[in-house]
Amino acid sequence: MVGVTQDYFPFGFGKHRCPGRFPAANELKTMLAYILVSHDVKFEGRVSRPTSIHWDLNVIADPTVRVMFRKRTCN
Ligand code: HEM
C-alpha cells in the first residue's frame, strides 16, 4: 500500500513522494479494521461485489451502489 512505483502512485513518485504515506496507510487500515470488527457490512440489494469502473488510469467504486452498515451489538 505504501509502495511508490511507476505502476502505483497514489502517494506520488520520485523525490517528492509522500513522506506521510506510512502513518496515513496505518490510519486507514486501523479505521477499516475497526469498521469490520464492529459492523456488519453489505451492498444494498446485492449478493456479489459490484463491478468496478475503470476510468483512465483509475479504478473507482460504482457510485450508484449503496453500502449498508449495521453496528453489531454485544451479546
Ligand atoms: C491518504 C493520505 C495521503 C495521500 C493520498 C497523500 C498523497 C500525496 C501525494 C500524491 C503527494 C505528492 C507526491 C509527488 O509530488 O510526487 C504528497 C506529498 C506530500 N505529502 Fe502526502 N498524502 C497523504 C497523507 C499525508 C500525511 C498524513 C502527511 C503528513 C503527516 C503528508 C505529507 C506530505 C508532504 C510533506 C508532501 C510533500 C513531499 C515533497 O514535496 O517532498 N501526506 N502526498
From TrEMBL:
<dbReference type="InterPro" id="IPR002403">
    <property type="entry name" value="Cyt_P450_E_grp-IV"/>
</dbReference>
<protein>
    <recommendedName>
        <fullName>Cytochrome P450</fullName>
    </recommendedName>
</protein>
<dbReference type="GO" id="GO:0016705">
    <property type="term" value="F:oxidoreductase activity, acting on paired donors, with incorporation or reduction of molecular oxygen"/>
</dbReference>
<keyword id="KW-0503">Monooxygenase</keyword>
<dbReference type="GO" id="GO:0004497">
    <property type="term" value="F:monooxygenase activity"/>
</dbReference>
<dbReference type="Pfam" id="PF00067">
    <property type="entry name" value="p450"/>
</dbReference>
<dbReference type="GO" id="GO:0005506">
    <property type="term" value="F:iron ion binding"/>
</dbReference>
<dbReference type="GO" id="GO:0020037">
    <property type="term" value="F:heme binding"/>
</dbReference>
<dbReference type="InterPro" id="IPR017972">
    <property type="entry name" value="Cyt_P450_CS"/>
</dbReference>
<keyword id="KW-0349">Heme</keyword>
<comment type="similarity">
    <text>Belongs to the cytochrome P450 family.</text>
</comment>
<keyword id="KW-0560">Oxidoreductase</keyword>
<keyword id="KW-0479">Metal-binding</keyword>
<dbReference type="InterPro" id="IPR036396">
    <property type="entry name" value="Cyt_P450_sf"/>
</dbReference>
<dbReference type="InterPro" id="IPR001128">
    <property type="entry name" value="Cyt_P450"/>
</dbReference>
<keyword id="KW-0408">Iron</keyword>
